[in-house]
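We modelled the chain as a single entity of 223 amino acids. Its sequence is:
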Amino acid sequence: MSSDESTRAKILLAAGPIFAERGFRCATVREICDAAGVNLASVNYYFHDKQNLYIETVMQARAMRAQQVPFPDWPVDSAPEARLRMFIRFLLQRVVASDSAPWEVRLLMREFLEPTEACRRLVEEHFRPVFDRLLGLIDELVGVRLDDATRNQVGFSIIGQCLHYRYSSFVIQLLLGEDDPTFSIDELTEHITRFSLGGIESIRQRIEPTANANATSNPFPAP
């Protein structure tokens, strides 16, 4: 690694925990440079300004989290139900963490709650492809492509169930009491999978009579 690359990497690694703890507005370039052991002009030299440094730090957090919890490499011939279970487990592993979560998780969660321009890049470059994979799974499970509104709502419902256990962790703790055991990833995976499959099956059964009626009334059936 060259000297420039080394200095740039030191700044990013120093910036991560500080941005995660204090946020973009409250964190200062000076404290980041002090933590990295570089002079104040280094941020302008390598990143042009604080905003670009923040965006690059968020993108690095996502890349590091992707290495820690990679997207599941499911077999091509696996059943869609099995792939949905793997997807849900993957998402829970990515987002459900304790208060001692690594700075990458804390920074990404902060960005979701207080979005900046970095969030737009995250969505377009990383989250949209993952969401599209989930929508493809929903198509397979239903058997037809739903209208966009319903299709998206089903996808957001599955994701929302997973995110609930991260964003509402403190409220859950208060509701259940501190002595109650926390939900394991395995328990949550099975519950959310079963619940989601039940909802998808309900949609499938609702649209099946309509699809059959349309096929019956078609005077020109496909050869």
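As a brief sanity check on the tokenised model: Residues 212 and 218 are 10 Å apart (CA to CA). The domain at 3-59 is CATH 1.10.10.60 (Arc Repressor Mutant, subunit A).
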